Amino acid sequence: MEPSHSPLTQDEYEPRLSSDLLRGHTETIVLGILHRGDAYGFEIYNAILERTGERYELKETTLYSGYKRLEQEGCISSYWGDETQGARRRYYHLTDRGRETYRRNMRDWEFTRQILDKLMGLDESNPGNP
């Protein structure tokens, strides 16, 4: 006899964030954080945790390879802070090219979201859909 599985109620279901959906958006996430001002690597890492209510964490190695790629592409620049206490921190700054890349990526994301909404029956222009 198979065990019976009762369906989870909406209150019992804990939604999961699909890393597949976020893959490829790491650099845009970093650019978005830097859009608000310069930040050092670990500060960006913490901002991601904070903004997601600690439900999403990017590995530091993923972030640091993203920083390197963004710097090579001219989207960000880096400089060493002048901390008087503790370890020196490398700060990242959004360049004009980075701002334009961020705006373009956000337009692409919005377009993608609209297409996904339509494909999943969430098209806002058709209120009869769920």
The end-to-end distance, rounded to whole angstroms, is: 36 Å
Count of domain modules: 1
The name CATH uses for the topology is Arc Repressor Mutant, subunit A
Sheet with the most strands: spatial strand order: 1-3-2
As a percent range, the share of helical residues equals 40-55%
Largest beta-sheet details: 3 strands, antiparallel
Shape descriptor reads globular
Beta-strand content: 5-15%
| Element-by-element helix/strand order | HHEHHEEH
Strand tally is 3
Q: Please tally the helical runs, counting DSSP H or I stretches of 4 or more residues.
A: 5
Q: Summarize model confidence as the mean pLDDT.
A: 86
CATH class: Mainly Alpha
The CATH architecture would be Orthogonal Bundle
**Structural classification:** mainly alpha
The CATH superfamily name is: Winged helix-like DNA-binding domain superfamily/Winged helix DNA-binding domain
Q: Pick out the low-confidence regions.
A: none
Rg, please? 19 Å
